[in-house]
Amino acid sequence: MNKLPAYLILAVLSSSSIEAYADSLRCKKGLIQIGDYKADILLKCGEPFLKDKVFVDNDEVLISKNSTVIRHRNEIDQWTYKLRRGMFLTILDFKGGKLESIHYGNRINE
Question: Which of 1, 6, 9, 65 is the most exposed place for a label (fewest CB within 10 A)?
Fold first, then answer.
């Protein structure tokens, strides 16, 4: 049986279709972490390149005689930073004014 070359496996794993997540991020004026407030992040990282609102649908099943599905529409504030050339776009998701997740987009080449 043929084995895939290591370089092919690495290329697939490092493709932009795989999203990486982090628990913290180093900005010019300090470290930000999950749970930090927007004001703290503005002080440490400055204004984002882009601010957006994203709506995510969540289904919740209530246990009862007849299972009932309730659809919740959650609003998430999303800030995108272009920190430095050669790095990835950094996307911060906020829920209720607090940082909920940090993930990365495409590499910045400009």
Answer: 1
